[in-house]
């Protein structure tokens, strides 16, 4: 669940996601925007595991979130790697059919402790800092969309 706390944004105020790991390499799911009543398929497929100094590669689709510039689904190919014992990074190429745009999103995550991490997500247009706390039965992230719109994301793994 994502809840954008700021008012007067062009982002969906409340979004629910449900995903399921079918195999170690394939995750599928569905996102639902409550206000718009739009549904977006989610699919992540690991093309290659990270090994021998090479990054992992993924292909998939999900909503174009966290971008506030476009709607609909984005399709992507990503490379992700562990940079050191506490830091990971990723870079992607994404296409959004809604407006025909190509972007180069990326992210950098640093694990402060076993349960607390900080990240910077670049959506191709804007930077979104976030802090995530991982608990035994719930994960909570505080996100500043575009560096200014406060958002809470809650994940319940099962």
CATH architecture: Beta Barrel
Average the pLDDT over all residues and give the rounded result: 91
Query: What gap, in angstroms, lies between the N and C termini?
Result: 14 Å
What is the CATH first-level class name? Mainly Beta
Annotation, overall tally of beta strands:
13
Oligomeric state as shown = single chain
* Tally of DSSP helical segments: 0
Query: Segments where pLDDT lies below 50 for 5+ residues?
Result: none
- At CATH level 3, the topology is Porin
Principal-axes shape call: globular
CATH superfamily: monomeric porin ompg
What proportion of the residues form beta strands (DSSP E)? over 45%
Q: What does the main sheet amount to?
A: 12 strands, antiparallel, barrel
Task: Describe the structure in your own words.
This protein has strands spanning 2-4, 14-23, 26-33, 38-48, 56-63, 73-82, 87-96, 101-103, 106-111, 116-122, 127-134, 139-145, 149-155. With 158 residues, the chain is mainly beta. The protein has a single domain (2-155), classed as Beta Barrel (Porin). The protein has a twelve-stranded antiparallel beta barrel with strand order 1-2-3-4-5-6-7-9-10-11-12-13. Strand 11 (127-134) and strand 12 (139-145) form a beta hairpin.
